[in-house]
Amino acid sequence: MQAPFSSVAVFGPGLLGGSIARSIREHMPNCDLRLWARRTEPLEMAKQMGITEKTYTDPIDAARGAELIILATPIAIFEDLSRRMLPAIDRSAIVTDVGSVKAYVHRTTGDTLTERGRIFIGSHPMAGTEKQGLEHSSATLLQGATVALTNPHRAAANQVERLAAFWQALGCSTYLMDPTNHDQTVARISHMPHILAALCARGAVAGKTPMKDLQRLAASGFRDTTRVCEGPANMWADILWENDVAVRSVLADCIRDLHHLSDLLENQDRQGVLKWLEEARAARKEVRQS
After folding, report:
1. Are residues 15 and 82 in the same domain?
2. Which of 69, 96, 162, 235 has the greatest count of CB atoms below 10 A from its CB?
3. Angle made by CA atoms 100, 103, 109, in degrees to the nearest 5
4. What is the CATH number of the domain that holds 284?
């Protein structure tokens, strides 16, 4: 089967960008793969790991001739990076990103590129860990992941299909969404769980319980619930900032639900608490389809 793209440039070889690059190397061994980073250290690491010898700190050199350009840097620099590489982006090339917020990306980076005759289609692979950096990347990270695709700039159907075929070649499934719907959905299914994990970690140390007692009794429940909040704080601050409207809406729902649970406990309503917990179990099973 022919690869959807013969040349791909990945900008930002961190955990996700590095995993994409490693997956490309595994599933598309003949692909002309380039990596761009601001610093030389991750690029040298990529060479040592056998990912590619084509590494760049100049975005124009990295983008020149690439059929697919993947923005895997922090979202905040997408637009500036796109402007810098613009002269090297072929008008038939597809630019995509892997950011977890889509409406913001489309009204900034997407507008910048499409207004200048370039093709931009958003992507969001639902994959990751609390780790960061190329050293924690894996060619299998994307295996089985869903990639949300967003296309408010109305790229041609064959271009969307070509990008979908790329993600599918890496072992992913794809799902076309409206950007606003995407952001509202990930606020509930991804961003809020991160906030609640952080809240659990903060709550553990908020009282006067001795640290030695907390450490001795912290078991799998605490570890599993709070694991994701070990992710990079600067990245998550950007995500919450860029998706603030949807996140605040979900926060309001959670606060109301917590007040409801508090009222049930205060009123000694055991049946109400049982119902609350049973509804939570049912919701998880329905969302997880298991």
Report:
1. yes
2. 69
3. 90
4. 1.10.3660.10
pLDDT class for 169, splitting at 50, 70, 90?
A: very high
pLDDT of 118 higher than 80: yes
Domain that residue 114 falls in: 7-177
SS3 category, 277? helix
| pLDDT tens column, 9-42 | 999 999 999 999 999 999 999 999 999 999 999 9
Contacts 24+ apart (CB under 8 A), 107-115: 108/78, 108/79, 109/71, 109/78, 109/79, 109/82, 110/152, 110/153, 111/153, 112/79, 112/82, 112/83, 113/82, 113/86, 113/89, 114/153
On whether both 21 and 89 belong to a single domain, the answer is yes
Q: Are 78 and 99 within 8 A, CB to CB?
A: yes
Euclidean distance between CA atoms 161 and 159, whole angstroms: 5
